[in-house]
Amino acid sequence: MSAVTVEDHDHHDHGPAKGLLRWIVTTNHKDIGTLYLLFALLMFFVGGSMALIIRAELFEPGMQFVDPQFFNSMTTMHALVMVFGAVMPAFVGLANWMIPMMIGAPDMALPRMNNMSFWMLVAGVLLLASTLFMEGGAPASGWTLYPPLVLQTGNALPFAIFSVHLLGMSSIMGAINVIATIFNMRAPKMTLMKMPLFVWTWLITGFLLIAIMPVFAGAVTMLLTDRFFDTSFFDAAGGGDPVLYQHIFWFFGHPEVYVMILPTFGVASTIIPIFARKPLFGYASMVYATAAIAFLSFIVWAHHMFLVGMPMAGELYFMYATMLIAIPTGVKIFNWTATMWKGAMTFETPMLFSIAFVVLFTMGGFTGLMMALAPVDFQYHDTYFIVAHFHYTLVPASVFILMAAGYFWLPKWTGNMYDERLAKLHFWLSAISVNILFFPQHFLGLAGMPRRIPDYAVQFADWNMISSIGAFIYGPSQLIFVYIVYKTIKGGTGEKVTGEVWEGAKEQSLEWTLPSPAPYHTFSTPPEEIPTMSTSR
Amino acid sequence: MSTNDAYYIPNKAVWPIIGTGGLMTLFIGFANYLNGNSVGLTIMALGMMIFIVMLTGWFALQANESESGMYNHGVGISYRMGMMWFIFSEIMFFAVFFGTLWYTRNLSVDWLAGIGDGPGRSTAMLWPDFEAVWPTNGPGNVGGEFEEMGAFGLPFINTLLLLTSGVTCTWAHHGLLAKNRDQLIKGLIATVTLGFVFVACQALEYYEAYHEMGLTLGSGVYGSTFFMLTGFHGLHVCVGAIMLSVVLFRSWKGHFTPENHFAFEGAAWYWHFVDVVWLGLFIFVYIL
């Protein structure tokens, strides 16, 4: 790493460009991080509205508001928007903002490509959203886009496929940038085992993304040629096999769910030690556990396909391999708990969300372990049990931690303190309603209610109604977050925060050694001292 | 303005948004074309034009910045890492299609013919007359009769062409390192020429397949895997040859020094990558 940073030769001012253009042509990691985060927040509400349409239709048995085709489009688009438009971009936004500041770098390694990866994301989401208004409706096959069903999509199919291509390119470029930044831009004293865990988890996530996004691109390309160019990849009459698509999709899809959870782990590992006022327990084991989870994610994919008719050896192998994942995940849960053990804990909103994450993610993990058992999965497969499982690992885990990250770093980003009282209200409404929303779905699934249907037998009525009530509390509660963010940007509580913001934070990670708000350019010269309280010393 | 120990960070970038717009236009045009909309091709052409303008502009910008000494060693490492990981993503893209070929030949065609104790047990009743052979266009005889593509005609010549081009590329690199501009330019001309001759041979092979052998993209799963694997590879040869052409043009203009020539290295790595993919194709698609 170099000692000094040089600016564009014909621009001697160190500030951003003027007006709206600033946001279009920016190469600054903080600007691009802000764009990613705001875009993700917007998409969180777009995807959330789709979820509310689903829950409104399922409030009572019978058909109420939408026709079945549109209902299926909603389940599909809700998933695609939330995965590719909300959760992944939100973590890329955090990576952009925080990684250079955490490793003492002046910016991301490839700033122009950074800009391009954001705008490709927008282009991809625009193409995806446009399918809602097309003849034949948006894709209605579920986000997995299984053939032959997805091949019956109307005009939307090629748009959805090209949208996946654009989103994939965006993710690959973002991931390449993160990896190059971490390997090449660290401050001289920032050795690999002194990096904050958020940086470590993103390094491994970046590798996952580069390995899997091309795989998804290949799979949907074959869908495109099967539909429009007479190929027979997934058509048994021509010697192909629709199950092949499922294998390729889940070779992408399983690591993909870890793309959404590994940075979650990273943020939790950053927040918990600060509010427990203790070093993170087992830093090195956290790094190795993350790597182990990433490795295992590549060799367990067919546990999504226990009912598809695999040979017995396949069922057994994928069952045992999947259960192995519980070991490194258990190491992580143990370490977070041990970090809090006998800590001088305070319960500011980021910590509340993090504790809720540890508890509720553990529940989502346990239901995952249940479904890893092939004979048990035969009953749960494609019921509301799986819906409850992955929503527990995504909403009160990834989304809660994203909220925690927002509250945790907003004072650093804006220089203002958020309204703690409102934030606590947001937390308690979310934590209670998310359980009203998703916990009953376990019972529905165990009783046999299939997923992705707009109507159901009357014995499922009670729990569905409770679940929908939870949804209509959870969804609007998130508007409190928008209000708090807006108010904090506009001055917050009026209290100016210090650079450190949280007591003792300076000893945990580099970003707290900077002033709040963080200046437009930081670490033009690398930091002299590296905080090592929570890493290896 | 810049010094050798400074990591260059541009203040703004106009080409990314233009490139994104071009690519999006291209995709919208293509999707419209596939849906049978006549304006599709026009929109595609427009998108392609914007994309080419972006490539030209962005390459020129980078070349000028590089030549004016704005990139130090650290920037060079970032670019090299970027290229390495990009090539890794391309390897994963080809892995999908090689995996498809493996799965089809070793598992699903057998199952269709009722072999094995897995899915084969039920499909045997669907097509009792179907036998597991390779190549196949499936129990439905999709696409009609066809001939298999042999390995030792044009494909073998193509293998020699690409292997030779790998050697000439390395020879050019040695020229660059030894400050022998003449050797650099000759080596690059040879490499690019061999690349385009390869593409021409591939086109000839496709022509024969379509017009004399009855082998098309629609010839069941054999035609699908054959044309997708070789087609995407051919596309990557074109991209690599275009990269090398840009490098050749810059060599003519006197760019690159033995210390500073990332563009050459990146293009050369890419070229060796398409070479290796071809060797995989030659073995698994043509010979076996």
Give your account of this protein's structure.
- The complex is a heterodimer of chains A (about 525) and B (about 290).
- By secondary structure, chain A is mostly helical.
- Chain A has a single domain (about 25-515), classed as Cytochrome C Oxidase, Chain A, CATH 1.20.210.10.
- Chain A is built from 15 helices and 1 strand; from the N terminus they run βααααααααααααααα.
- Chain A has helices spanning about 20-25, 30-55, 70-105, 110-130, 155-185, 195-230, 240-275, 285-295, 310-325, 325-340, 350-370, 375-380, 385-415, 420-445, 460-490; one strand at about 5.
- In chain A, α3 (about 70-105) packs antiparallel against α4 (about 110-130), α4 packs antiparallel against α5 and α7 packs across α13.
- The longest helix of chain A is centred in the first third of the chain and has 36 residues, at about 70-105.
- The two termini of chain A are about 20 Å apart.
- Mean pLDDT of chain A is about 95; it is low at about 5-15.
- Chain B is built from 8 helices and 1 strand, in the order βαααααααα.
- The longest helix of chain B is centred in the first third of the chain and has 40 residues, at about 75-110.
- At the A-B interface, β1, α4, α5, α6 and α7 of A face β1, α1, α3 and α7 of B.
- Per CATH, the superfamily of chain A is Cytochrome c oxidase-like, subunit I domain
What is the CATH-assigned architecture of the largest domain in chain B?
Up-down Bundle
CATH topology of the largest domain in chain B: Four Helix Bundle (Hemerythrin (Met), subunit A)
Report the CATH C-level class of chain A.
Answer: Mainly Alpha
- Quickly give the structural class of chain B: mainly alpha
Task: Output the radius of gyration of chain B.
Answer: 23 Å
